[in-house]
UniProtKB/TrEMBL annotation, chain B:
<protein>
    <submittedName>
        <fullName>ABC transporter substrate-binding protein</fullName>
    </submittedName>
</protein>
<keyword id="KW-0732">Signal</keyword>
<dbReference type="InterPro" id="IPR050490">
    <property type="entry name" value="Bact_solute-bd_prot1"/>
</dbReference>
<comment type="similarity">
    <text>Belongs to the bacterial solute-binding protein 1 family.</text>
</comment>
<dbReference type="InterPro" id="IPR006059">
    <property type="entry name" value="SBP"/>
</dbReference>
<feature type="signal peptide">
    <location>
        <begin position="1"/>
        <end position="25"/>
    </location>
</feature>
<keyword id="KW-0813">Transport</keyword>
<dbReference type="Pfam" id="PF13416">
    <property type="entry name" value="SBP_bac_8"/>
</dbReference>
Amino acid sequence: MRTRWILGAPLLAFLVLLVAAPITYGVWTSLTRRTLSGTDAPFAGLANYGAVLGDSTFWHSLGFTAAFTAAVVVLEVPLGFGLALLVNQRLPGHRVLFTALLLPIMVAPSLLGVMFRLLLNGDIGALPALLAKFGVSVSLFDPSSVVPLLVVLDVLQWTPFTFLILYAGLQGVPADLYEAAAVDGASYVRTLRSVVAPVMGPVLASAAFLRAIDAFRTFDVVYVLTGGGPGTSTTTASIYIYKTAFTDGDFGIASAASVVLLLLLIGLVPVVVRRIVGKPGEGRR
Amino acid sequence: MRVRRFTAAAIALVAMGGAAGCAGAAGGGSGAGGGTVQMVLWPGPEGDAMQKVVDAYNAGQGKKDGVTVKMTLLSRTDTFAKEATEMAAKSSSVDVYFTASYIVGQHAPSLDPIAGVDSSAYFPVAVDGLTYEGKLYGLPLDVSNHFLLYRKDLIDQLMSDAAWKAEYGKVSQEVVGKSLTPKPPADWNWDDFVAAAAFFTKKYNSGSPTTYGTALQAKNLLYNVMIWDDVLWSQGGSWLDSSGKPTLNSAAGKAAMSVYSTIYTKGLTSPDSAQAEFPETQAAMQSGNAAFALQWSAGYADLNSAEKSPKTAGKIGIAPVPGEQHKTHVHALAVGLNKYSKNKANAMKWLTYLATPAAMTTYAQAGGIPAMPSVLQAQQGTNPVFSSITDSIGTYGFAEPTLKNSFQAYSDLADALSGAWVGREPADAALAKADDALNRLSG
């Protein structure tokens, strides 16, 4: 018993120092009028929560973030799965393809934003110049095309992440299941549907969950490319919190918005855990 | 045995972490102390120029003062956020902070007023902008303002070519609703600006040498509000009326909004302008895709540089911002003395040196735009834009009201107004939202 506690101490220390303490401090800050330049932080009760919940910009940012998250997850999980299946075929050059596919997730998102700001610029960008040679004129930063652009850029950067998880998951599908399906004369599509998909279900759910959580916190690329505009049309929840904290200097309200966001996201966890781990009583295979 | 060792290591690690945490909490940082003055600035032309001044001081006057200056350049986008965390912690790790007229009200509680400096050596508008509640909190360093930068070759042809003049009349009738005659850019009002933008846009004039007439900076960015303010002030508008009440939702505000939304919705600027700021505007001019633009003074030299802008070098003219009254926003970048510094005497020696014409001459020669008119006059050979800056700031310069939360006000106005600039939101609603923000912040 004592050994168990001793062995678990580092994890416990990690949880206390890096998870529980910051969250507690964040919650406490959300109950105060702490500002960046203020020297004291008087207790504010739930006033900051009232300010956040009554701010239409906050709700708009949540709505935009939810829609953005849904769009990118719906695209990235099937695309990542498709790529994983492709690379899993062990085609010639699959190792090179594997390495190349992982490159985008190694680039810092803010750097990616700067790169695309240059690459897609209508006056000096390589892509518009290339398209112009074929008589195609594009304005990718036009307000009507900027949201699809942000989705595409996220898909380009993060599909490799879902690919990586799903490819690793595919390695866990027992070979004898494929063999049994082949003996039964199942087609490739039927094998995917009846053999691979059920086994991969928890992995697909994990990939979707991880991407959803990450996409909900999207900041860098959007901030670099649009600053949350025009107006507040592309303001994500993270941009809202960042601006509230560091432009408005209001840490109390920014912390309250963070706590609200945390509470909204934490509601997803039991659903996903049930999907990944299985219902109580189902046992682990 | 292994478990014991592991436990010991874990305890040591936790203890170290705790100690580090305590050190940080006790913090505030002790600063460099002694003869070393720590200063923060942001990177870019100002940081580069200031490095030359720092080097000159450390090699010369600094030795006599017994002071060495160490400058840290933070990220350009997050300098003020990082400084704010230092200020909130009452840290003494930085002796001299970077500040600006649009944020000095927020910084003032953490700064000591600057005393013993001859403020008459600086542009009055720069000193006013850095004065909060009657006290000067920043030593002016650099000034920024706006000009109309235009292609001289194109405007010269417009002024002399009969066929172009005739076409200009037709295009202006179509876009502005009246047939106009071309004028020199220094005499433009906003109708002339819009008409010329349409004339140099292929959509309205297939013979135009440029794709778009102008390049609007309409991204949701606080610095873009400063440019739009030129249009507002030129219409007789302001943020606040004489009684201190927000007054953006006014005839002047609507007229200023109409200038922007007309330019954008009629396609006189690239649709990408919705996400454009300084670099995109430079790119539009450098590529030859735009004929003129409202731009920061810092853009002029690069557009006329054969090395950086081969297509436009030698072809860029400069004129005041258009309008019945020419107006240009002016802000001063500055340095301020940390109230919690433990090294104030040495920091003041450095600031006293920075206030000399000699230091500002070094700054100007290294690419900065000092806030001292006498230095700008004397250094006209260094940068041809200096003479225009002296004239323009002196004659047309204005500073927005210095609020405690000016920085937040600019940001909130960008949130409120940028959608309407590009015709995505109704102007009235945007201006009302902007007034609400100002009301909240100025109250």
